[in-house]
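User: Predict the structure for this protein chain, please.
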Amino acid sequence: MAIEFNRIITLLRKERGITQKQAAQDLGISQAQLSHYEKGIRECGLAFVVQVADYYGVSCDYLLGRSADRNGQTIQVADLPDTESSTAGSIYRGSVLPTMYKKLIENSLDILYDKLENCRDRQIVTEVSTYLMLAVYRMFRQLYEASPKNVVGMFRVGAARWPASADAAMQLQNAELAAHLTGEDGNRDAVDPATLGMSTESLARDYPRHATSLLNLIKNSEEAMRALHRS
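Assistant: Here is the predicted structure, written as structure tokens:
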């Protein structure tokens, strides 16, 4: 419990702009005790979990990392909004799993591109989009080449070079984006940080139909990354 709980209660407090001293006072505990909870030094009892959930207006499941949704919603395919693509809502070969992941990704992309539109920076849009296109290209080509019946001539970059070339291009786009966002390329005033401001609360408020998808995508992605550290 400690790993998720301490991270989330710290996140919620900082998103609210509340000092540790104020939060501790509101919750009826000492600042030192709250500090121990936020650092994961000590574990609290169930009653305190419920108290914190009421204080921040979230569910206990969210506090414990069992749900990516602030309200504790368990994601279901039917609960995710359909996209407007020709394959929207399709159940592939009787399985709901591809449909769920497709919705998670597409709904998350809707939020991502809305944020990109708000920042009004063509270079950022291009760098993010190129990176995402390369990621899709990489996955599609791996699947395409898995079948010996598929014609090799569909692609211009040869089989020996494309994996490393795709990885290198993705890393370059990521580096260019980082340099642009931090002003390393001399264009420090290009992006207004206010246009990229967000929190779990604002995401849920501004994107009520899509935030669940994004938050679950983040949760699934970080579980995959943490699995690497455990292996």
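The two ends are 21 Å apart (CA to CA).
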